[in-house]
Amino acid sequence: MRRFLLFALVFCLHLLLLAQPLKRTSPESVGMSSAFLHNADVAIQASIDAGEIPGAVLAVVRHGKMAYIQAYGNRQVYPTKEPMTIETIFDMASCSKCMGTTMCVMKLLETGRLRLLDAVSRYIPGFEDWQSKDDGEKVTIRIEDLLTHTSGLLPYGPAAELARKYGSPNPEGMKEWICTCRKDFEPKTDFQYSCINFITLQYIVEKITGQSLRDFARENVFGPLQMNHTDYLPCAPDANGVWKNTVEPVWASLMQGQDWRSIVAPTTKQEDGSVLRGMVHDPLARIMNGGISGNAGVFSNADDIGILCAALLNGGEWNGARVLSPLTVETMRTVPRAVSSLGRALGWDCFSPYASNNGDLFSRQTFSHTGFTGTSIVIDPENDCAVILLVNAVHPEEGRSNMIRLRSVVSNAVAGAIVKK
Length: 421
Description:
By secondary structure, the chain is α+β, with helices and mostly antiparallel strands. The chain has 2 domains: about 20-115 and about 210-420, Beta-lactamase (3-Layer(aba) Sandwich); about 115-210, Methane Monooxygenase Hydroxylase, Chain G, domain 1. The chain contains 12 helices and 15 strands. It has a 6-stranded antiparallel sheet with strand order 3-2-1-15-14-13, sandwiched between helices.
């Protein structure tokens, strides 16, 4: 009995250690300058003072440690003010594409359950490939094309129109629309950023695994890395048409009786005066896919994203938990040869026109992603550094901030603070 209790104690301590965020350290201990990092603080505070953003969280990961983490301003300014904290959980918007969908696709790739060259129609019956209007020639759309945004699929879909036709939420209706929607160009001949690409990937993941994207991501990525403040938040309208969360997120059990929404940054004010808080901002993700979507839907905080970045900088493993192999990570962050001029890696951005958040100083190996709500992840393997900038820039309304410039300026400030390899 004593031996069993000792084993149980050791096991619980092991789980506790696994659940810890990245070790905090000083910038100087990982070859960075605190004084130079202050330039990032100045840029973020200037944006807050100008009324462009309500607040932000900045986190810098280097050499497997959290070298810098700061909160600025407020996480809510309407209807009341709440100060920003480093624990705040954000709607990651399109960063869900790389954090969730891409990681799941790459897991299926390395376990032999799909190939990059597999046709989309292999997994989604009725999916129509590109066909030339001139001579009727058909070209297969493949998984690689979806990941690199070179499929020709539409950038987005008419959420309200689809809801009227199919009801809401209705992933099967969304899938039916995708199968026959217009394709704008022959695969691999051009780049067009598309949420439809990643919703299609979601349906492929779910077809292969028999699980929801949420469950597969939790089982294979978020869970093993102990990202305990990261989740998709399912939702649906009630009998009165009011949108409600249908389950609690993983962090609800950690809140000790406090409302789990209290640490979530709200996004946009709605027509009825309420703000979205704990429900995905993206219309297709919320209205058609009920919060679990390949293009958006992940909620997370700086510490959890820091763990994911540390794992990717460490060849897919962190703290004894391996989520991807080193070769898989390298493949994921490399622009495929067939579309080498277009700048998109597998689920990530390297040097497309959307990659200005990389800044001007990080290495050519840098890969990144942004989210419409104001989120950004930049990872530079050569300098073993990641920059996580989290902003709910669409609160209380959209269109006030220039996140494109702010992201780039912050990346430059962080890169400029690296003074030793």
